[in-house]
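Query form — protein UTP--glucose-1-phosphate uridylyltransferase

QUESTION: What is the three-dimensional structure of this chain?
INPUT:
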Amino acid sequence: MKRIRKAVFPVAGLGTRFLPATKAVPKEMLPVVDRPLIQYAVDEAFEAGIEQLIFVNGRNKSSIEDYFDLAFEVEQTLSSRGKSLAALEGTRPKPGSIVSVRQQEPLGLGHAVWCARDIVGDEPFAVLLADDLMVGQPGCLKQMVEAYEKVGGNIICAQEVRDDQAHMYGVITPGARDGALTEVKGLVEKPAPGTAPSNLAVIGRYILQPEVMRILEGQGKGAGGEIQLTDAMASMIGNQPFHGLTFAGTRYDCGDKAGFIHANMALAAAREDIGATIREIGKQVFAV
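ANSWER: The structure tokens for UTP--glucose-1-phosphate uridylyltransferase are given below.
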């Protein structure tokens, strides 16, 4: 069984739900407290043993690559003033560990993943969507890698959602269950209300075998007129082991304004340095 060494980060989206902020700032660079969304996903990947990060980028998103580079002026100024550089830890991965490719057209998540095919090569790989901020110990991807090492094949992150929310997600048709692992018998992308095969939704973390790239190569457009990763995964079911792992932790949907604010409030309130102040502010703001 090959180890999971590479992770794909689709970061080419326009972030239209956060306009006008995302007119100039990539959605993945919006801060949750004092760190951008992409940093949380990258930290999660490194915790899981990922060695190479593949950013599938778009036009006008160079700030994501710049963020993970040397900030000479900032570092020099801090050092000359005798200040700690600890706040910058994690923003400068090992040289050569980040690769960027361009998705020229917004043709969907499946297309974005396919754009990384030549770098992924013939290896299983992870996909992380920075919109989904996953908080847990260990992190979500590490939990998935541990499951992969037991059952192999393909692993997708699953979360139970309300029946009236299932139409917003890719949904698992479940088979046998073993603790947090659920055998995946089928996948349906954004089923019509009331038709979902379960309330187990697919969340933005995946471990996939390289064969998915060959499927995406010739796949047509699906739901929303986009090339859907869910459709490609569905065609692999039955040919390879396929499981959903229910994440033991908390997910914040930071692709949604309310979810983004929720993440900021929750993570700020949990901080040792500002938590007490934030909780007191919360009492004042939400006093009835």
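ADDITIONAL NOTE: The radius of gyration is 19 Å.
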